[in-house]
Amino acid sequence: MTLKEKIQWLETRPRFKPKTSLDHLKEVYDTLNLKLPSLKVHVVGTNGKGSTTMMTTHILKTKYKVGSFISPYVYNFNERILIQGDPVSDDVLEKALDETIKLYETYPTLTFFELLTLMALMIFSEASCDAIVMEAGIGGRLDATNILTYTYSLIVSVGHDHLRLLGPTLIDVLKEKIAIMKPNGHLLSTVDSKFNNLIKAHVNKVEHATVSFLRENPFKIATRYPLTFTYKETLYELAFIGDHYASNARLAIEVGLNEDISVENIKEALLLTTMPGRFEKIVGDVYVDSAHNQEAMECLTHTLNHVFKHDKKTIILSVLGDKDVKHMLDILKQDNHTIILTSFDDPRYQDISQYQDYYILFIKDAMEAYQYATNKKDDQTKIIITGSIHFIGYLGSKIKQAL
Known about the structure:
CATH class of the largest domain: Alpha Beta
CATH superfamily of the largest domain: Mur-like, catalytic domain
Radius of gyration: 21 Å
Number of helices: 14
Shape: globular
Strand order of the largest sheet: 4-3-2-5-1-6-7-8
CATH architecture of the largest domain: 3-Layer(aba) Sandwich
Number of domains: 2
Helix content: 25-40%
Low-confidence stretches: none
CATH topology of the largest domain: UDP-N-acetylmuramoyl-L-alanine:D-glutamate ligase
Structural class: alpha/beta
């Protein structure tokens, strides 16, 4: 098989299987005899996991050799597994895929995400990393990344995106996430303060575990373009655009400070941190942003109303089948944007043509939707491609190829 075929093989493994524990996965992990570092960071949350993982990675790499696990990718599968903040090479990826395929022959009940997690850990072991940062998939308690014991557990946010799987309430979602806590671990939280008592009660039951609620520390947005903020009376600047990234950065900063990394090194690392698909400029006035659920769409519209306050906006949107499109559109329609719905090549794509009306267009072909938007735009118009991370990668790649 070619590398592309091996990736396709992995991506076609079963996505979800009912489970009540991680015992089966831990048994497989133990057979691998991997050499992983003691410094491990676990990142969970509904939104913001990816950017928090990247900022934490860039801060830690000023002192350590860092392996990072991120999902999903935007343009290239290699983006899922990073060494020192850079995607692993095709050669490294292919070697690990070969080992993963052999592993599956012995353990054919493993799911896609379980195999992917183990593959990342194999790569980190082979690379002799000094630290690893692992982004969880969905939930926490039964997520494949939870087979490890972590030094730091970061909870970024709690939202409505996975209520169907983890709910029915936000409290249920939060309980799944805080269940990642292990003895001697330190939990850092930026979730709404109304959940503090519940989190504290759980952490108090875990032997020698501690918790820090970062919303209790002084924090203020200074400017939005560029994005600067003060945290604990120190001014930081980010390459990202959007207030929520500043909020997420607090978690990464605290990990750095706890690891005795200087404030100057933390500042420099944050300024150098970028990530595909996070308010990313593709060309001219065209941006892609992974606002793939209700809370993320609220963050995007907030950013647009501040950064592009005097511009008109055309939104090109497409999503996967498990998303609440109606609420996402309700948020967008509040600001009188031009909205174009479209489709993309993914078996999980949700047919959203039913939502077209007098104010909302549906153009089935994504490139035709983009060309329509560019033909209609003037110098005061920004085009924002958003929705599913898979969609923005799909259309973003086509636009880049056409340049």
